[in-house]
Structure formats: structure tokens, C-alpha cells
């Protein structure tokens, strides 16, 4: 039997995940500041609400997929936020917000007797459409278990513990690796092409050798070699994730030599290409410097 959920933030990821909840037989009350993204959901029978508070007066469990930690805090705890609703019992954050914000939001919501679950996602828009994303869950175990059908509709469920923020820390560690591999792959590919190697053949060799990673296996073949740059995740969001990772590592006293360089690369990308550029376009920063193009 399907349940009724609230869903706030129907962007690149939210649209895919909310669609999967409908596909699995659940019903939704939806909200986004961009009314256009709500139309396909209303056409499929979802109810559109006028504010996060209205969503929280319509559903006991609300999932959010929002761009930045500040937006998540405002939607959860701000004026007309989720905490002002009269029905909500559980808040599930699918966004990448960092563990400090997760702890702050969990405390703020606890004052309103609302349980908070961290549940950041990884695997990209294509993974969210296919339901193959990793779902990194932390929070009260009984609530997480009770929501298992919803998590299973979204992707592959991992329960990481009841400490608030653990799911966020897991996600940031993953994204630091994703950001580092992508940036390093750009430098290696530009070097090879500049020396006269064929870009597609380089990718084939690396994928049969020890340098293979998600950038060489998926992202370069799909979005860089054909020059489509359409993975659906912005350079601004990647930069946010690396900065959140740096905050987390600094708070824990962990060295950051490699991650500091990675953060600078993404800062360069945002400065040169703009925060709304697809993250795969960062290759252009390296190409421009070396005066070659990685295509094929
Ligand atoms: P997006 O910008 O495409 O979507 C965000 C949505 O939130 C938009 O529809 C926007 O209108 C809405 N929104 C913004 N402010 C709002 C507010 N105050 N109230 C209600 N709605 C508001 O972003 P995305 O790529 O879908 O990413 C969402 C989250 O998921 C981010 O935290 C991101 O880091 C994370 N994430 C993204 C990907 C990806 O591949 N795109 C993968 C994993 C995780």
C-alpha cells in the first residue's frame, strides 16, 4: 500500500526521485519556488502546496532535495517552514548539506517533535532516474526502517547509524573522491592529447588499466568526449560539496593537502565558467591553458 509523502525541491534530482515515489504507488504533496517544475507532478495526481508549512500540514513525512545548506535550513526552520506545519513527524533531507547543518536542523526540528533523517544521495541524475543511486541514511533506526519502502524506491539503501550527520559525512567523503578523480582525469587527458594521443583511445586504455575511475568509465565517454556537458550537476554544487568536505575534515583535524588543491580547481571552474555550468565543463579550464581539446 502506498503512503502519502511531502516532497520539496523538484530540481534535477528531486524530479527523478519524486517520480520514482509516484511510480512505486505512493502519493505526494509537492512544493518548489519554481512553479513550472510542479506541473508534471500535478498532472500525475500530486497536490501542489503553497509553502513548506502547507506541505507539513498535509503529510507526516517530508522529503527535501534542495540546493544548499542555507536553503534547507530556511525551508525546515524558517518562516512558513516545515516546523510550522501541524501534521509532520519526520523530515528526510536528500540534499548535500554537511554534518554540521544536519545536526543544527535536527536540533531545531526536535524542539517541534519532528525527527530528522539524513539521506544524501549519490549516483547522478541518470542514477536517480534509474533508481540506482546510493542512499546514505542516518537517524533514528525505527523511523529509517519504517521508511524503507520509500528509500528502496529511490535507490540502494545504506543505514549508517543514528548519529545525526553521519549520512552527510559519508556523502562528502564520496564527493571529495568524485571531485578529485574528475579534476585529475581532466589534467591527465589534456596532457595525453597535447602529446598527440587520441582522447577516446586514452579512455579505452585507462579503463583497461589501473587509472580507471568513474570519470573515465562514465563521465568522459558520456559528456566530455562528445562535448555535450550534460551530466545535470552544476560546478557550483560540486564546489559547495568540496568546501563542505574541507570544513568537515578541518573540524576533525584531518590533513587536507590533496583536497585543498581539489577545492582550488573547483573554485577556478566556478570563477571562469559560472556556478551554473555543468561540472564536466571544468575540463575547459585545463584545455584553455594547454590550448587543446579533449574530444572524440
Ligand atoms: P537543482 O538546483 O536542480 O534543484 C533544486 C530545486 O530546489 C530547484 O527546483 C529549486 O527551484 C528548488 N528550490 C530552491 N530554493 C527553494 C526554496 N527555498 N524552497 C523550495 N524549493 C526551492 O539541484 P539538484 O542538482 O537537484 O541538487 C539538489 C541537491 O542534491 C543538492 O544538495 C545537490 O548537491 C544534491 N545532489 C545532486 C546531484 C546531481 O547529480 N544533480 C547528485 C547528488 C546529490
Kindly summarize this structure in a few lines.
The chain is α/β, with parallel strands linked by helices and 296 residues long. The protein folds into 2 domains: 4-163, NAD(P)-binding Rossmann-like Domain (Rossmann fold), CATH 3.40.50.720; 169-290, N-(1-d-carboxylethyl)-l-norvaline Dehydrogenase, domain 2. Helix content is 53%, strand content 13%.
Keywords summarizing the entry:
single chain; 296 residues; alpha/beta; Rossmann fold; 2 domains; six-stranded parallel sheet; three-stranded mixed sheet; 14 helices; 9 strands; binds nicotinamide-adenine-dinucleotide
What is the helix content?
40-55%
The top-level CATH class of the largest domain is Alpha Beta
What name does CATH use for the topology of the largest domain? Rossmann fold
The CATH superfamily of the largest domain is identified as: NAD(P)-binding Rossmann-like Domain
What is the radius of gyration computed over CA atoms, rounded to a whole number of angstroms?
20 Å
Please, what is the average pLDDT? 97
Please identify the oligomeric state: single chain
H/E series, N to C?
A: EHEHEHEHEHEEHEHHEHHHHHH
Q: Please name the CATH architecture of the largest domain.
A: 3-Layer(aba) Sandwich
| Major sheet: arrangement of strands | 3-2-1-4-5-6
Strand fraction: 5-15%
Number of helices: 14
**Unreliable runs:** none
Amino acid at each position: 500500500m502506498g503512503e502519502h509523502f511531502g516532497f520539496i525541491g523538484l530540481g534535477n534530482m528531486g524530479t527523478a526521485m519524486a517520480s520514482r515515489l509516484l511510480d512505486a504507488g505512493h502519493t505526494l504533496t509537492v512544493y518548489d519556488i519554481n512553479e513550472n517544475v510542479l506541473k508534471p507532478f500535478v498532472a500525475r495526481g500530486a497536490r501542489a502546496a503553497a509553502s513548506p508549512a502547507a506541505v507539513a500540514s498535509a503529510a507526516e513525512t517530508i522529503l527535501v532535495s534542495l540546493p544548499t545548506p542555507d536553503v534547507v535550513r530556511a525551508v525546515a526552520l524558517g518562516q512558513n517552514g516545515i516546523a510550522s506545519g501541524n501534521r509532520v513527524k519526520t523530515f528526510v533531507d536528500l540534499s548535500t548539506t554537511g554534518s554540521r547543518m544536519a545536526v543544527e536542523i535536527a536540533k531545531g526540528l526536535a524542539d517541534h517533535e519532528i525527527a530528522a533523517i539524513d539521506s544524501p544521495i549519490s549516483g547522478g541524475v541518470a542514477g536517480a532516474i534509474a533508481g540506482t543511486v546510493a542512499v546514505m541514511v542516518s537517524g533514528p533506526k525505527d523511523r529509517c526502517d519504517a521508511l524503507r519502502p520509500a528509500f528502496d524506491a529511490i535507490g540502494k539503501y545504506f543505514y549508517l547509524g543514528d548519529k545525526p550527520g553521519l549520512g552527510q559525512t559519508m556523502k562528502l567523503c564520496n564527493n571529495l573522491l568524485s571531485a578529485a578523480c574528475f579534476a585529475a582525469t581532466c589534467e591527465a587527458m589534456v596532457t595525453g592529447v597535447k602529446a598527440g594521443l587520441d582522447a577516446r583511445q586514452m579512455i579505452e586504455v585507462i579503463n583497461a588499466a589501473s587509472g580507471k575511475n568513474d570519470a573515465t568509465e562514465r563521465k568522459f565517454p558520456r559528456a566530455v568526449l562528445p562535448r555535450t556537458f550534460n551530466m545535470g550537476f552544476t560546478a557550483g554544487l560540486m564546489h559547495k560539496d568540496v568546501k563542505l568536505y574541507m570544513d568537515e575534515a578541518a573540524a576533525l583535524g584531518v590533513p587536507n593537502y590533496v583536497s585543498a588543491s581539489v577545492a582550488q580547481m573547483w573554485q577556478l571552474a566556478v570563477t571562469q565558467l559560472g556556478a551554473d555550468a555543468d561540472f564536466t565543463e571544468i575540463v575547459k579550464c585545463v584545455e584553455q591553458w594547454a590550448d587543446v581539446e579533449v574530444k572524440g
